[in-house]
Amino acid sequence: SSKAREMKLAILGATGRTGLEAVKQALAENHTVTAIVRNPAKITLAHDNLKVVEADIFDEEALKSQFSGHDAIVSCLGFPPQKPTVTGYLEVTKKVVSAMKSSSVSRLVVCHSWYTEEESRGK
Fold this sequence. Notes:
The protein is of the alpha/beta class.
């Protein structure tokens, strides 16, 4: 059987539902995970291949130092609705891509949520 290459992944948004699932699945596949979070206390999962670090996702320098040495970045960020527009995704993605270039990381997986008003769903 061919075994997939184990990777070193940095996961943004690891305290959210999707992000936590990404962390669990990555660990189950023997990847090494750095969970980059705003509040480390929100991660109750413990694993030998899991490192939880606190960083400001809007701070390119902070991201650069955390991205260094990783094979890929997985972004599972979610932002609350803002009127008139939600700009967090664009702002963070620009910082992430720039930090990746500076850290020589060339793979980015984006799994962002898209907020919709509850009453508009299914229409």
